[in-house]
Amino acid sequence: MATITTSDVRLHTLPPAIGRAGLRGALASEFTKLRSVRSTYWALGALLIVSIGVGALVMGGESGSLTHNIANRAGFDGTQVSLIPFFEIGQLIIGVLGALTITSEYSTGMIRTSLTAMPRRGVVYAAKAIVFTGVTLVFALITSFVAFLVGQAMVASTREGASLFGNVKIPANAIFSGPGGPGSPPKVTLQGIDVISASTVLRAVVGTALFVTLVALIAFGLGAIIRHTAGAIATVIGLMFIIPVIIQTLPQNWRQDIMRFFPDAAGRVISVTVPGGGDPNLWSSWPQMIVTACYAVGLLAIGAYMFSKRDA
Amino acid sequence: MIEVRGLTKRYGAKTAVDDLTFGIEPGKVTGFLGPNGAGKTTTMRCILGLDYPDEGTVTVDGKSYPDLAYPMREVGALLDAKAVHGGRSARNHLLCLAQTNSLPRRRVGEVLELVGLTEVAGKRSKGFSLGMSQRLGIAATLLGDPKVLMFDEPVNGLDPEGILWIRNLMRSLAAEGRTVFVSSHLMSEMEHTADHLIVIGRGKLIADCTMREFIAGSSGAWVRVRTPSAEEFVRAVAAQGATAATDQDGSIEVRGMTTEQLGDLAFSEGIRLHELTTVRASLEEAFMELTASSVEYRADVPGAQQPSTTIGSGV
Question: Total structural domains in chain B?
């Protein structure tokens, strides 16, 4: 078309259009959206600070307890303890970002502008999900590795820390002997050796980051379904924190049978590195991760369907 | 061009748009009029694929909107100036839109300059006034150099300077051969900008015609006459077969004769005239008349008078 002239400003003629607007442009756009709002930096900053900072504090406390009471050294899972703040609190922080990524479009009205620019909704949704997954995965991996390394540094003096570069041997059991009672603490003998292999530690660190990323995608899918920030976040909290508490109140035999079918279980399994350290009622790490992944994929798919079919 | 055929959209039990059919011609400003709640925004949302019609089809250049290769190059639409993420800067807002249609990055700076927002390009749009938001929205519509522009109530809440700016912009866009489709519930606004009118009420088409036809088709013109010899003049007019009625304020309302004929008549009868004016129903009146039965929410004001515009020359 002709150039537009209003007052003294002139727009250059656009280069001719070739092909069709598609995923490539949508990906660039979604990345611009994510990097150009403060909530992204707040969420990712909080993820790093809380996961690493609280992880360091917890491990600092463990360092003292390992030194003062050597019984605590038996079966001490340095990897899991250093990652607990990450997968317990960090999942919620990144979940907020996951929900916001999609609900903020609705709460601000931006969705109408976005879908006018790019009306192929499947492409918009896919681009949003891909960009969010990529950014989350990178930050989750960084957080997981740094939280692990800082945590192990905090217990370095005890020589009980785990390592990514070699096998570590820790005492398997603590045997108490002697009379015990006030004024005469029991004598503790450490027996047996558990070997924590570097590959197990790597699986725990990487797997925990994957778990947190899956939780973020659950939040993203719920955001697309619910379209309200507070509602989506409340549902994530319900699914990841409230339902597990309710399950704890059920009779033992029921609880044992159903807890493995909920998305929160994988975090407690994938981070375990000490042999026999996991919950016997849960599946092993990867099958349990598949459960969480099924929730993420299912909610993402329902979200995609509703994103495409509903009036914007 | 935009073709709306049998468009019907229901929200629950309420029918917002009811079997609406019209086309929008290129190179013109087409005004889309109707009282609040008539279905203007819903129609525009259906054109853009934001809402899915229950029945009927909407096409842009023969394609449904989501099938356009580069939608922003075909249609630039501004439905709601506040439909932006307030935490994002003006520049990043435009950039993320430009990227979806693979538009060059420099285009963002150009449209910002065009609408006069270069100085606040890095600021978050949360703090923008309505006028600035409106300019940002218009900048977005121009990113793709589109053939069709759609604006929903673009002057709502703007100050006179902003209104003038938008009015001139719409005219210059149409002058460049673009199709401009603009909605309003204010007839007076259309009077200055639109060539063609589509009027709807309660979701149904009321009129689809040129501006001239629209005014002519309403109650029509009459002539106001003031004279010291009112009785004599009324008799003379009646003798010519036209109707004349005396108003409360003493002026005479004549229908069926032109100012030329009345002037000649007064001259030949030797009657002095103090005023001889053609009064044409304003767009506002024509609109009120047409939509009177289709206003969804009405507040009756006792003794309220409808405005009228006087066109022509006094004597």
Answer: 2
CB contacts of B79 in chain A (<8 Å) are 112, 116
A to B CB pairs, distance under 8 Å: 144
pLDDT at A15: 87
For A292-303, write each residue's pLDDT tens digit. Answer: 999 999 999 999
- CB-CB: which of A9, A28, A116 is closest to B99? A28
Q: Are residues B131 and B259 in the same domain?
A: no
Asked if residue B63 is part of any domain, the answer here is yes
Q: Give the residue numbers spanning the domain of A121.
A: 23-162+198-309
Q: Is residue A6, in this structure, part of any structural domain at all?
A: no
Stretch (H or E) spanning B114: helix B106-115
B 126-185 residues inside an 8 A Cβ radius of A: 140, 142, 144-147, 168-169, 172-173, 176-178
CA distances from A168 to A2, A161, A229, B4, B148 (A): 72, 8, 45, 73, 69
Same domain for B211 and B226, yes or no, is no
Last residue of a domain, one of B179, B198, B217: B217
Beta-carbon separation of A36 and B96 below 8 A: yes
* Partners of residue A118 in chain B, C-beta under 8 Å: 71, 100-101
Is B146 within a domain?
Answer: yes
On whether both B107 and B189 belong to a single domain, the answer is yes
Which residue range forms the structural domain that includes residue B246? 222-280
Mark residue B39 as left, alpha or beta (left: phi above 0; alpha: psi -120 to 50; beta: remaining).
left
**What's the predicted TM-score (pTM) here?**
0.86
Query: Looking at chain A from residue 97 to 116, which residues have their Cβ under 8 Å from any Cβ of chain B?
Result: 104-105, 108-116
ipTM computed for the complex: 0.91
CATH (domain of B268):
3.30.70
Least confident of A160-164, A199-203, B291-295: B291-295
